[in-house]
Specification:
Blueprint (H helix, E strand, L loop, with lengths): L1 E4 L21 E6 L3 E10 L5 E6 L5 H4 L13 E6 L33 H13 L4 E4 L2 E5 L11 H13 L25 H7 L4 H4 L5 H15 L3 E6 L6 H14 L9 H5 L8 H17 E2 L7 E2 L2 E10 L2 H6 L7 E11 L17 H7 L3 H7 L31 H10 L5 H17 L3 E6 L2 E6 L2 H11 L3 H9 E6 L2 E6 L2 H31 L10 E7 L11 H31 L13 H8 L4 H11 L4 H12 L6 E2 L8 E5 L4 E5 L3 H6 L4 H8 L5 H19 L5 H5 L3 H17 L2 E8 L12 H10 L2 H10 L3 E4 H5 L1
Helix pairs in contact: 2-27, 3-6, 6-7, 7-9, 9-11, 9-13, 9-17, 14-15, 14-17, 16-23, 17-24, 18-19, 18-26, 20-21, 23-24
């Protein structure tokens, strides 16, 4: 039996509000087109009481911690404004949270702000960010503002041990205090109460213990939930590109992998010596997956120098000690030894291999390979010696400024070492690297045109490059040339040849390059899982703590098929976030007759209906993809707009071109360019190219992987594809949707925790905030609504026993 409690009264000693909120001298915020919100002081109300005169005076350190708009620095913003109160909620200006010294008083938990609104949340994060505090609580959510700097001591072994000691080993775990799962409803698993309740139930007070917000708090609570309650855990790390998701995942994974070593009974020498911290072979293998995936799956974008260009769901598998056995052995917290891991990847951006936008880069591993010592290059392929990015067409658009960070040559030894941990060494290592060389060489093939009987045909003019490619693959030059420039068809027993045009041949060459890289990546994922999977995984079950690192919401000048898939995934995650944080509470309140809050601002059900409803985008795109008719992209857009014309989430702009459409996503409205949507949705490589790759005598990885692919294609063709459901199940967006559905099913079986990453500016400047950009992220992430609900509702659920104590 549980009862609810409200938040304790706020401390009014440090933050005092004027009796009249709009009185002269009140410190407030006013809207600003450049900064979203700026601080001001009320000078005097007007006679009609619907307008006030305010004095804008920016703090002296404003320019030091703010991305300053041109001509609008602290010295240029000393002005008076007449503000209409009707443009603000409740006809009042939002009040500042100030301490006795008159400076913004930052709070560890934003639900504790005396004056809670969008502006106070923005300035609370800015205050903490400028002071080197990247983490802030929002009840059950951890907000992580990317510091764009490595803060000394923040991630040390001692810091890891501090959080584990206070939140796990020294937590009060009396049986009467433990949180009991709620009764399952509609077949869903029981869930733990909110994180705020967990803190009280296990008997610690964060503020009194001096425990500042940290992602180690999230990982410690996840470990505790698995060890004590036996509930699988999932940590969802979300945010836009450049917000720090990848680094956050690495930090959390490192902590979870080594928590058991911080147990007080563990030998002191192993607990305090960083050199021994990752001594376990299992732990080393799990953690070594990070540099491998970063090399092969990450790239520089205009927003992030180390952007994950794929989604990754990592399931850490723990051997959880039975609770009775733990008590018998004198352990208050059952042991959870990391036994292995499993990784599932999603939607690799393989198009980056053949096409790089200005100011961006291809996957890091290509730069590492070209920057490797010539002695290493010679062992792989002598054609690499003395070569640089300028010698390969796929990379020639890269400037020296694009090479650095994880793409730099200094990281080559780390990548090689990481691969060896997973058995990618010797001939297997050479096959992987030579596959990358094949890709680079395919990019150097040049197609010219020649005319036969008035028909334009593609011909390979770069004979020397073709010769190099032939030697690399172990396939005759003539066979490669035929596969790239011709299509051999068989209709009703009659064979005939179609000669490709140069642009068609180039598209086929690029398709082969992309598929080779995708196969190499999948091969490495398989090797990683084989090396990290527990040896006896078939004979026993394991408790799991899973981490999801998936692409953030994307909006570019031109948004294509890849952005649609990425934003669809983010809509699914937002839907899960809303269900976990809002609807679970909504159903309880309605059952108990408590007035409920408005969820329309965060509910994205109508967006999901537009995307995956019965007549939604996915259905329309798949139907046009199956037809494979000329002009299919524009036909798809037309039909999609017609059948969904009544959706308020579909943007119907008369200025749209026939291939353009817009969607009002939860994060922002996005215009999509549907050209080549159908081609990318089909994602099928021509049979002639498949056959060519299967003949590779010098690269067993390419040969074997493409033989698997060829076998699957033959099975597909043999099936006839008579029914629409059968015809569409092999399309990219259908497979991705199925992957997301399976992912959500896994997450539903666990206790979900959230880390919301925020990108404070677009220039990667430490301790500096672009207020307008940050405010838009807070709004789109639903954080403002989460905070308001936490304050205005009954956020904590406690047992009668704990209340009595």
């Amino acid at each position: 039996v549980h009862i609810t409690e409200t938040k304790p009264p706020q401390d009014t000693k440090k933050e005092e509000e004027p009796a009249n909120r709009m009185a002269e001298g009140a410190k407030v915020y006013v809207r600003d087109p450049h900064y979203s919100w700026i601080p001001a002081t009320i000078e005097s109300p007007e006679d009609d009481k619907m307008r006030v005169k305010v004095a804008v005076r920016l703090p002296k350190d404003w320019d030091s911690h703010t991305v300053v708009a041109t001509g609008r620095g602290a010295n240029n913003m000393k002005m008076d404004r007449l503000v209409k109160l009707s443009e603000y909620p409740n006809n009042e200006l939002p009040l500042q949270n100030l301490d006795k010294e008159g400076t913004v008083s930052g709070k560890n938990d934003m639900a504790d702000l005396a004056n809670l609104h969008e502006a106070s949340i923005l300035f609370n994060l800015k205050s903490r960010h400028s002071n080197g505090c990247p983490y802030t609580r929002v009840g059950d959510i951890m907000v992580a503002v990317n510091p764009f700097d490595w803060i000394d001591g923040l991630y040390s072994p001692e810091k890891q041990e501090f959080y584990a000691r206070n939140l796990i080993w020294q937590a009060s775990l009396d049986s009467n205090d433990l949180i009991r799962p709620r009764s399952p409803e509609k077949g869903r698993p029981a869930l733990l109460a909110t994180a705020a309740t967990e803190r009280k139930a296990v008997g610690y007070d964060f503020e009194k213990l001096g425990i500042n917000p940290h992602v180690y708090e999230t990982s410690s609570l996840a470990y505790l939930g698995l060890a004590v309650e036996g509930n699988d855990q999932t940590i969802l790390v979300t945010g836009e590109s450049g917000a720090g998701k990848t680094e956050t995942i690495k930090i959390v994974m490192d902590h979870l992998a080594t928590v058991e070593r911080s147990r007080p009974s563990w030998p002191e020498s192993d607990r305090v010596q960083a050199a021994n911290y990752h001594a376990s072979d299992t732990v080393e293998r799990v953690l070594k997956s990070n540099p491998m995936f970063e090399a092969f799956g990450n790239a520089k974008t205009t927003r992030n120098d180390n952007s994950s260009r794929f989604g990754k769901y990592t399931q850490l598998q723990f051997d959880v000690e039975d609770r009775d056995a733990a008590i018998k052995n004198g352990r208050r917290v059952p042991s959870c030894h990391l036994s292995g891991s499993k990784c599932i990847t999603y939607l690799l951006e393989k198009s980056r291999v053949v096409s790089i936008s200005q100011g961006e880069g291809t996957f890091h591993v290509f730069y590492q390979l070209l920057g490797a010592p010539d002695s290493d290059k010679m062992k792989i392929w002598d054609g690499l010696c003395g070569k640089s990015v300028a010698d390969f067409a796929y990379m020639s658009s890269t400037t020296p400024e694009d090479i650095g960070g994880l793409a730099g040559p200094d990281h080559w030894p780390e990548t090689v070492a990481a691969l060896s941990v997973f058995g990618v060494e010797g001939d297997t290592f050479l096959d992987v690297m030579r596959s990358l060389c094949v890709i680079l060489q395919l990019g150097n093939i040049v197609f010219d045109r020649e005319t036969h009987d008035g028909e334009e045909r593609a011909v390979i003019s770069s004979t020397e490059e073709l010769k190099k490619l032939s030697l690399l693959m172990g396939v005759p030059e003539a066979d490669i040339a035929d596969a790239l420039t011709k299509r051999f068809m068989n209709t009703r027993g009659e064979e005939f040849t179609i000669f490709l045009k140069p642009n068609e041949a180039r598209d086929g060459c690029d398709a082969l390059s992309k598929e080779i890289y995708a196969r190499v990546f999948d091969f490495l994922v398989s090797k990683c899982n084989g090396a990290t999977e527990p040896q006896d995984s078939g004979s026993k079950g394991y408790g799991t703590i899973s981490l999801l690192d998936i692409f953030g919401f994307e909006s570019f000048k031109v948004n294509r098929f890849e952005q649609l898939c990425i934003n669809f995934a983010n809509e699914r995650l937002q839907q899960k976030f809303v269900i976990d944080n809002f609807y679970a509470i909504k159903h309880e309140y309605e059952a108990e007759g408590i007035d409920i809050f408005d969820l329309s601002l965060v509910d994205n059900t109508d967006v999901m209906d537009l995307l995956e409803g019965k007549l939604g985008l996915i259905t329309q795109l798949n139907e046009e993809s199956v037809k494979k008719m000329a002009g299919g992209d524009e036909s798809f857009v037309y039909k999609f707009k017609v059948v969904n014309s009544d959706s308020n989430r579909l943007i119907q702009d008369p200025l749209h071109r026939p291939y353009e459409f817009g969607v009002r996503h939860y994060a922002a409205p996005i215009k999509y360019d549907a050209r080549r949507f159908i081609e990318r949705n089909l994602d099928r490589i021509p049979a002639d190219l498949l056959k060519c790759a299967c003949q590779s005598n010098n690269n067993s990885l390419i040969r074997e992987e493409f033989q698997k692919l060829s076998s699957g294609s033959e099975t597909l063709e043999a099936g006839g594809l008579k029914k629409r459901s059968a015809a569409t199940k092999h399309l990219v967006i259908t497979k991705f949707r199925q992957q997301l559905t399976s992912l959500m099913s896994l997450i539903e079986l666990s206790r979900t925790r959230y880390i919301r990453c925020v990108k404070p500016n677009k220039i990667s400047a430490p301790r500096t905030m672009d207020q307008h950009h940050t405010a838009s992220q807070l709004e789109s992430a639903g954080l403002l609504t989460a905070i308001v609900i936490s304050r205005e509702s009954f956020p904590n659920r406690l047992s009668y026993e704990l209340i009595m104590e």
